[in-house]
Design a protein that fits this description.
The structure holds two protein chains of two kinds.
Chain A lengths: L1 H7 L12 E10 L2 E11 L4 E5 L6 H8 L7 E6 L2 E2 L9 E4 L11 H11 L4 H14 L15 H13 L5 E5 L7 H16 L3 E6 L10 E6 L2 E6 L1 H8 L4 H18 L1
Parallel strand pairs in A: 3-8, 3-9, 6-7, 7-8
Antiparallel strand pairs in A: 1-2, 1-4, 4-5, 9-10
Helix pairs in contact in A: 3-4, 3-5, 7-8
Chain B lengths: L2 H17 L1 H21 L9 E5 L6 H11 L7 E4 L5 H6 L5 E4 L4 H6 L5 E6 L4 H31 L7 H6 L4 E2 L3 E2 L8 H31 L2 H7 L4 H30 L8 H23 L5 H18 L14 H4 L3 H15 L3 H29 L2
Helix pairs in contact in B: 1-10, 2-8, 2-10, 8-10, 8-11, 8-12, 8-14, 10-11, 11-14, 11-15, 14-15
Classes of the chains: A alpha/beta, B mainly alpha.
Chain lengths: ~260, ~400
Amino acid sequence: MAESSQTGAHSLATGASEPLVVCEEVVKVFGKLCVLDGLNLTIGTGETFGLVGPNGSGKTTLMRILAGLVRPTAGSVRVLGRRMPEPAVAASIGYMTQLSALYLDLTARENLRFFCSIYGLRGQERERRINEILERVELSASADRVVATFSGGMRQRLSLACALVHRPRLALLDEPTVGVDPELRRSFWDYFAQLNGEGTTIVVSTHHLDEAARCSRLGLLRFGKLLACGTPQALLAEAGTNDMEAAFLHYAARERRKEVTA
Amino acid sequence: MSGARILALTTRIMRQIVRDRRTLALVFLVPLLVMSVLYVVLTGSSGSVPTLALVRPTGAGSETLNALIDRLLPPASRLKTITIAAGEVESVLNKGEADAALIFPADLATQLARGEHPRLQLVLEGSDPSVASAMRENVTALVRQLDVALAQAQSQRGQGQQGAVPPVNVLATSVLTLATPRYLHGGPDYTFNDALAPVFIGVFSFFFVFLLTSVAFLRERSQGTIERVLASPLSRGELVMGYVCGFTLFALVQAVVVLLFVIFVLRVHYQGNLGLVFLVAILLTVSGVNLGIFLSTFAQNEFQIIQFIPLVFGLQVLLSGIFWPVAQLPAWLQPVSYLLPLTYANEALRDVMLKGSDFAQIAPQLAALLVFMLLMIGLSAVTVRRQVA
């Protein structure tokens, strides 16, 4: 409790003095199911942090906790120096959900306009940002079409645009490349690199292990536990392999041995 | 609470409603169609047993007259009767204890003995035209029979012969005349539709707003947009407010359309304060929006929402006094009626449009609607919180 009152003293502006995201012994239980099991994790400003793990490993739950949508059962989560869930942090976070999560009966521009407005953007500034991001995700030509007519890839691009249009300091991207063709996947990752270069911290979850190499650091997640955490190179070196899939299996096997001996 | 964020949500909802042309057309046309059909179908018949209050003759020689009246009254299965004092007529009718009062002159016996032609007065409550017209028929028949019996008694006395005068002749020279009935509310040209039309405004605004909100909110969940919205600075209170504003505006437009149709196309009689009609519509709509948000969390898809319609709507149509008064329901069902918002809305809308009641007169109903509305807002606020475990 003493610790949280200390962190409460941090203002959002000076949050840079500590890592952007700090998770300590985070536990989340849904009914009888333990989804996150004592997770410790630190993500620094300016990182592109990859959460890698199979389905059901707890990636989405961790994302939702970081977005302030779920309260952890135990442990503490601090984002931008504030203990989550904290509404004041919401404006600095951009959250791209796993589903494309768009209003299908509205046009791309109307979707962006709505999300801009609830993040407090208005008037000329709002329209400028919308045009800019439409350009970036290459949807300018389809901006005034109803989203229901969009292809899967277009929806995914618009979904990304909606999460980033208010220029968040922390972008939480939950499996942004699921069901996306290889070409678009590459352009997404190029865009992430560009964003990161502009100072946005990115937390991205994926189960495409080949994407992992483009992250500055990785957290390998399985059954709600962090198997390992580090730069892609360090993780590969420690596992003694140059294949991320083999490395993941190596750390999973190590965890099983630990459980047996415990 | 940020007005700009609520406005953003309200704008989005209005835009979505307007975008869906087919739903829009149905929502505005279906009420007009249903009302038109009902207008044609309903001809003001109702199977209820009305109550007649009698102000009996009390002067000298009244005992035999009262015995005669009792003998001639229709069976209780067709007409219930109660006896009241002359001064109680309006209060008994206004309290709903009787549908009409038949006033005999206190000195009826004396007038008859003098060979005068006494006048009886029928007073009708009148806000239910079908009851009023049934009552007129009943009383006219009763007075005729009484007339025949009295004429026979007179002719017997006068000529000392039994049954010498046929009833036809007696009718031609009536002893009694029934004055033109006096209506406290409504009038002889009111039909059942006049009593039904005010209710439609409440029914349609509640029903469509409930349906549209629950589907809209369900979509918000199934499309995942609620996650996005709740991860933004928009608070839960603002979310509920945005929904309330968007759908209430829409429902008021609908109420105007229904009202204009009722007054100018169906030419329903009406004498009330439009502001009060809209006040009832607003209270009901806000309840409907929040009930929609609340119930949508118990549905996994649109089909399951449809299952809620009989529960939310069917029950209310049957029990809220639309087609038959709540007072005619079985005693154990009546408390259920008073848990339903439409019961209060119907009472208030009828009082305003048929009797021209003012704010103070419908204040109890407005208070009940307000309580229900606050309860629904509370429920929906709790569910929105729970959606995000």
